[in-house]
Amino acid sequence: MLSVKDLSYRFSVAEGSNPIFEHLSLQVQKGEFVSLIGASGSGKSTLFRLITGLLEPDQGEIRIGGNLAPNRLGKVGYMPQKDLLLPWRTVTDNVLLPLELAKENKSAKMAEVTEWLSRFGLAGFEKAFPHELSGGMKQRVAFLRTIMTGKYLLLLDEPFGALDALTKRNMHSWLLGLWGELQKTVLFITHDLEEAILLSDRIYLLPGVSGQKVQEVKVNLPRPRKPELIYQSEFIEMRKELERLIRYEN
User: Fold this and answer.
1) How does pLDDT run across 147-182, given as a tens digit for each residue?
2) Domain holding 22: CATH number?
3) CB burial of residue 32 (10 Å; 0-12, 13-18, 19+)
4) Around Cβ 124, how many Cβ atoms within 10 Å?
5) Given a cut of 60, is residue 210 above it in pLDDT?
6) Which of 128, 126, 146 is closest to 77 using CA atoms?
7) Residue 234 included in any domain
8) Which structural domain, as residue segments, surrounds residue 86?
């Protein structure tokens, strides 16, 4: 679904000449949930902007769906760190925004949207405005809006990072329960090691020093998963290994 090969990028000299990353390669297979972790400044969000086409690499290639993608804008669903809901629009109108931008028939999609709102725990809040929602509900609306782009590859940049610990745990339960229905491929940025292990099939660790190789960790934990998994010994050992790798990289 996504192939990044030999990718290099640095900001302009005026902004600082140090490369963000060099010769970075990774792959995401169809239907996978893959997380990116790494120290601040390792280039995670920059990589997302390159994949979406908001930036262009200095070197390397990006393939989406097996095809070389020189014009990538609009090819993937992208959810940034902040929900960016339009405050003057209701929940339903925010969710319908991708259909409006694509000039699709909204009326033909209303039954589908209503069903997804129910699955996302938003039934009864269709006419609510963002200021009337909790933090977790706002993230659900933003996530559903991303799904309504119709793209099979979703890039999620720390979608739960601003939530308190209890709300984040509830969001994990919600997403794990929903994951089988989504049939999407996800590349997910997080600083939360437990979150990465709990949700992912594989984890890529971006190096803190440019030029070092990206490390891959496979999460060999059976699905379906539940949040209580974080207390099991196998999970704890995997977290320890990730912590060791991060210390080594930095």
Assistant:
1) 888 888 899 988 887 778 888 888 888 888 888 778
2) 3.40.50.300
3) middle
4) 10
5) no
6) 146
7) yes
8) 77-150
